[in-house]
Model the fold of this input.
Amino acid sequence: MLRIVCLLLAMVATSVTYADVSAVYGFDNRSEEQRYQNLIAELRCPKCQNQNIADSNSPISKDMRNVVYQMMLDGASNEEIVDSLVGRFGEFVKYKPDLDRRTFVLWATPAIAVLGGLLVVVGIVVRSRRTGTAAPALSAEEQARIDQMLAEQARNGND
Amino acid sequence: MKRFLLFLPLLVAIVVGAFLFAGIGKDPTKLDSALVGKPVPVFSLKGLKEPEATYDESLFQGEITLLNVWGTWCPACRDEHGDLMWLAQEKNVTIIGLNYKDNRDDALVWLDRLGDPYSEVIFDPKGTLGFDLGVYGAPETFVIDASGIVRYRHVGVVNVEVWEQILLPVINDARENG
Done:
């Protein structure tokens, strides 16, 4: 009995420990922490080009995370934070670039692909409908030929 | 109409091919600096060689300079050091160093041993000016005109070829239009 009580006490006394970002960067509340996570997830590391700064271990990403955190503490908006990093490292650090002349093709590609697909589907539907209804099985010429052949057969059969 | 449709795949292949061909040979790791056309960021940092001296952005006023970002931890910086010496001694280029995320003792030993191509060296152990310049990997070399405006940023090693084909034309342009 004593053993079981000890065991239960030990279980109750154990608190859950888990690691998360707030262990490194303190935030006042969950929504601020979420804002930080969203920001570092959509900023791209200039050094290791296919990682965001949340994923990357490179020193420059660490510096960028630091700056994002510091600016958040200073009360900067998301836009101000992203703009200040773009001002230093260029448009490249945004995973979602602004729509302009250079990025137009990039943004338009999905629409062009969908449009192309729709055109193909429409084409197939129109064509199948045309072959289904129009064009009678035999042309007048063919019909005449068949009539002639049948008549010939009938005549031969009578002989 | 039918005949046109037969050529459609060829047409698509040509358009896509031309678009993709334009991208061949571009090095995606070399990014244009966001600072081109803008003044050198405001800063206030100590000197490496003269620890008492404090430098700020006015250091880049008056003549065309190269700003070379380096550190003793950076192997490629060692590669280009000989060429920087050549530029400083043979071509009389004014090179200002930015010692980036380094420690003073190592950096001074490096300059002592390999030679010193820099007219001044800014000591930036925390990398604050480097961050403001958008430095993402040393070595990087900026061309800065006489009024302190960034004209060009080269990422990677400077050698004779880079000097002749990239940096010198930018400097000549800055000289003519400055």
Observations:
- The mean pLDDT of chain A is 83.
- The first helix of chain A runs from residue 2 to 13.
